[in-house]
Amino acid sequence: MKRHYIIVFMLVFLFYGTEKLFSMIPEGLYIAPKFVFSHDGNYFYVKDNGERGHFNYLGGGFALGYSIPTINKSSPVRFEFEYLGRRVIGLTNDLQMHTLLGSVYFDINFLFINEKLTDTSYKQAMINKYPLFTIYLGLSIGGKIKDYLSNQSDVKNELILRTSETGLVFGFSGGMAFNVLPYMSIDVGYRYLLDVKAEGYHEILAGVRFKVPKL
Fold first, then answer.
1. Residues 201 and 171 sit within 8 Å (Cβ to Cβ)
2. Which residues pair with 38 in a beta bridge?
3. Coil, strand or helix: which one is 118?
4. pLDDT tens digits, residue range 103-134?
5. Strand partners, 166
6. Does pTM surpass 0.85?
7. Which residues are within 8 A (CB) of 105 and not within 5 positions of it... i.e. 6 or more apart?
8. Cβ atoms of 76 and 109 closer than 8 Å
9. How far is 95 from 150, CA to CA, in rounded Å?
10. Nearest Cα to Cα of residue 206 among 55, 38, 28, 40
């Protein structure tokens, strides 16, 4: 009998606790899993056939963002905190790169409406309708960690040593978003990362933004 009371208590707590938790979430919050392809043209290695090879990375991560609430259905300004991890493609030395970035994005929203718009109907459409297509521009700043195996080794313990380099990076990005549902957008974009050593990385990003519901 006690077990039944415990189960009922847990269900009630989960229901009301979850509802209270969601009510505390600010409007405009979203989460976004991301995938990234990065090209490092700063360094090269010599392939077996004598040709030069550049370092390409593949990875993914997630972002937590916040769209500033407005009277319109979609805000033109949003902030984002992002982590992405990448691993080099086609090499065995386990070269990795990680970034933690804070970004601000400006969205240019496009609405498709089959009617002639007046000033009144335009304002009403912006308030009631979600844009189907968005072009975004962004600026980012954060840190980069590059982790790789060094050429030195600890012979006594038979361990291969790892080396990490950290630095400040800046990002300049642009892309497109397809708002397939009121709470979900598919993003595809390009970003150029530049560190303080003037070393640049070209990146192609793809992700899905999910708006956190407010109950």
1. no
2. 57, 203
3. coil
4. 999 988 776 555 565 656 555 555 556 678 88
5. 145
6. no
7. 77, 78, 79, 80, 136, 137, 138, 173
8. yes
9. 10
10. 38
What secondary structure does DSSP assign to 169-214, as a single string?
EEEEEEEEEEEEETTEEEEEEEEEEEETTS-EEEEEEEEEEEEPP-
Alpha carbon distances (Å) from 136 to 125, 150, 195: 21, 40, 22
- Exposed, middle or buried: residue 82 (CB in 10 Å: 0-12, 13-18, 19+)? buried
Between 102 and 23, name the one with better pLDDT. Answer: 102
Per DSSP, 115 falls in state S
Residue with tokens 């990490």: 164
| Bridge partner list, 107 | 136
DSSP 70-105: -SSSS-SEEEEEEEEEEEESS-SS--EEEEEEEEEE
Alpha-carbon span 189 to 148, nearest angstrom: 27
